[in-house]
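Translate sequence into structure tokens.
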Amino acid sequence: MKNLRDRLVACFTTVFPTLTPDTAVTASADTVAQWDSAHHILLRMVLEEEFKLRISEEVLANIDSFDGVEKYVSQLCKAA
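Result follows.
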């Protein structure tokens, strides 16, 4: 079974196909040219499907990097 980071990398590389596994872990809205509002919503949808969770609009507005997503999803997975 894949670990959390591997699953997140798969989500990011699905939404942003120009990323490699190495560049996905450092990705942010500032470093990924394609990261616009549409891709932000797509990332949310992919994450929700992969992790079977719901990400609120308020939370989503404050998450704009792989690191931020990893911290958020990690907290949710620990709470479950």
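Note: The chain has five helices and no strands.
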